[in-house]
Amino acid sequence: TKQENVNLLERSKTKPPKLYKVILLNDDFTTMEFVIEVLRIFFSMGQERATQVMLQIHNEGSAVCGVYPKDIAETKVSQVSEFAKQHGHPLRCQTEEN
Ligand code: NFA
Is 30 in the pocket of ligand 1 (CB under 6 A)? Predict the structure, then answer.
């Protein structure tokens, strides 16, 4: 590609972005149905995958819902946290460097 040609010619080092895990955490109050809705809306999962991941969070305490570059991961956390708050659920979402 042109960018690679520039990199080679200039011997520049364009690093791939660091990836960050977006993690949902279990709690005793958020409904299973709501967590499935979050996974479908914000992480583009189908009903079957969303159900599996919701149960993993419920049974194991947390699960990685996706991995993204930093700015996208942080936006997911903000959007999921705001959506949960708006709907009266205490669902927590955090990001972790991969
Ligand atoms: N533990 C919650 C319940 O029993 C369900 C839940 C799953 C909450 C995943 C948060 C994340 N209603």
Answer: yes
